[in-house]
Amino acid sequence: MEGLLQSKGHLIVEGLIEGSIHGESIFTEKDSRITAKIYAKVLSIAGFFKGEIEAGTLTILKTANVEGHIRCHRLVVDEGGILNGSVKFISPDDSPQCPPASNL
Questions:
Q1: Global confidence as pTM
Q2: Dihedrals φ, ψ of 91, to 5°?
Q3: Which helix H or strand E contains 90, and what residues bound it?
Q4: What pLDDT shows up at residue 7?
């Protein structure tokens, strides 16, 4: 899939994605391959990700491989999770503001 994917609730992402993903709570599956900009309040990555992330809380699970630029308030990396890139910690006041899903 290519383009913009937006969600108000909990979003589970599988497969190949290129583009932008905006959501409140996003979970990427173990076999996912994502090249994107992601804006989320809560983001958990279990697969491959390359791009930019802006999140309140980012969790990189043990099966994840993450490459890119990250801005987040809280970062958790499980043992075995791979993170290559830059990380900038932001205050809770600077947490990502996703555009409303109704603006598609």
A1: 0.88
A2: -75, 160
A3: none
A4: 87
